[in-house]
Amino acid sequence: MNPVLTRAARSDIAELRQLYYAVYGPHYPVALGTDPAEMARLIDDPHSLWLIGRCPRTGALTGSAAIHGEAGSRIGRLEGIAVHPEHRSAGLAAALTDALCTRMLDTGRLDSVYATVRTVGAGPQRVVARNGFRPLGILPNAVDLNRRESLALYARYSPGVLCCRLPVTEVPAPLLPLLRTAEEALGISYPEVRAAEGPLPAQVAPPGPPPAGVGRLELIEAPAFVRRRFREHFPGADGWFYPLHTPNVLITPEDGGFEVYAYLNRGGGYCSLLTAHPDPAAAAAYLEPVTRVLAKAGAGYVEALVPLAHTGALASFLAQGFVAGALYPAMRADGDGFHDYVVLSRSSDRIDFRGVAVEPPLQPYLDCYVSAWRSAHLPTSSEIAP
């Protein structure tokens, strides 16, 4: 029998929490399945859509999934896909995903929807692939669920969006293989892109104190204060772009020379660098100590989202040991066109791809990442003393 799909209501929250516990156990780091207040907010959010599935015979809650959107943005995130263990292999995850995309993408409400997919098995990748999602890259060690897991980044687009990407003429040389991988995977092209001239900035520094003159870095973890200060510096959309992320920590030196705003998820052991004040360039030379501070706070994975057209910012992250694992074409609308973005990351934990389930469309991205990591972190034969 086909499941009954309906929009989630506040009255479903208790059953939903039981469902997510049955599927993920006590270590699910997403508020969507654990925090009643956050769940209620998402259910009521007019920019989001949360669907559930029930057994037509018993009425039992058997599945759940949502597309999370936000005001002023035309990008959404597919999240919280969960199917009760007793009702798997019946196509419920695919049915929920298809219904969500039909209502949010096919109606023109959004330009694209992305999903971060677990790689402990091939099933999640197959679910999104069958529903029109295409692979954009790999996020190694991206979340801690009992142990470190790598995630795959997928996205589905509204018709015509990928055809309206704004051109880019040069990128740091280490990114060229990722662009070629995306060309093959997505059927897009970068015909005029060349490697930027000149070497990268000074290479990643060994562990040690912050650069001279910076002083000790302080991590301020006071979410309400951080949000207020962030809005003072960034009252509008100018100066930053990180969909569906709100800063809850800031890192600053003792002299207050710059402020780095980030989203830290202690439960999942990861952090996203959102932006910096007075501008990202002010903190570019201090990415190494900033990353170490976040690692001490429990973030074994730190990522950044950088426009493909911002060659200088990309070079700064690459020089500080970040590796590009994913490319999100046509991520941000700008007039009649769209900007491409790169996801770069660093992990303080050992990256181990043994046991990772990778479907054939995703494999080239994994191979590309391994090659990029090797080039960034292992010496070449000419650099090894005889």
Instruction: State the distance separating the first and last CA atoms.
Output: 69 Å
Beta fraction of the residues? Answer: 25-35%
Strand order of the largest sheet: 1-2-3-4-5-7-6
The major sheet is characterized as: 7 strands, mixed
* Cα-atom radius of gyration: 21 Å
Low-confidence stretches: 202-208
Mean pLDDT: 91
Oligomeric composition of the shown chains: single chain
SSE string, helices as H and strands as E: EHHEEEHEHEEEHEEHEEEHHEHEEH
Number of DSSP E strands: 16
The helix/strand class is alpha+beta
The outline comes out as globular
Number of alpha- plus pi-helical segments: 10
Share of residues in helices = 25-40%
Task: Give the structure's gist in a few sentences.
The chain is built from 10 helices and 16 strands. It has 386 residues and is an alpha+beta fold. The longest helix is centred in the last third of the chain and has 15 residues, at 363-377.
Q: Any chance you could write out the topology, listing elements then pairs?
A:
Layout: E1 4-7, H1 13-24, H2 36-44, E2 49-54, E3 61-68, E4 75-83, H3 92-104, E5 112-118, H4 123-130, E6 134-145, E7 147-157, E8 170-171, H5 176-186, E9 194-195, E10 217-220, H6 223-233, E11 249-253, E12 259-265, E13 270-277, H7 280-283, H8 287-296, E14 301-307, H9 311-319, E15 323-334, E16 337-347, H10 363-377
Description of the structure:
This protein has helices at 13-24, 36-44, 92-104, 123-130, 176-186, 223-233, 280-283, 287-296, 311-319, 363-377, and strands at residues 4-7, 49-54, 61-68, 75-83, 112-118, 134-145, 147-157, 170-171, 194-195, 217-220, 249-253, 259-265, 270-277, 301-307, 323-334, 337-347. It has a seven-stranded mixed sheet, sandwiched between helices. A seven-stranded mixed sheet has the order 10-11-12-13-14-16-15, with helices on both faces. A two-stranded parallel ribbon has the order 8-9. The protein is globular and about 65 Å long. With 386 residues, the protein is an alpha+beta fold. The chain is built from ten helices and 16 strands.
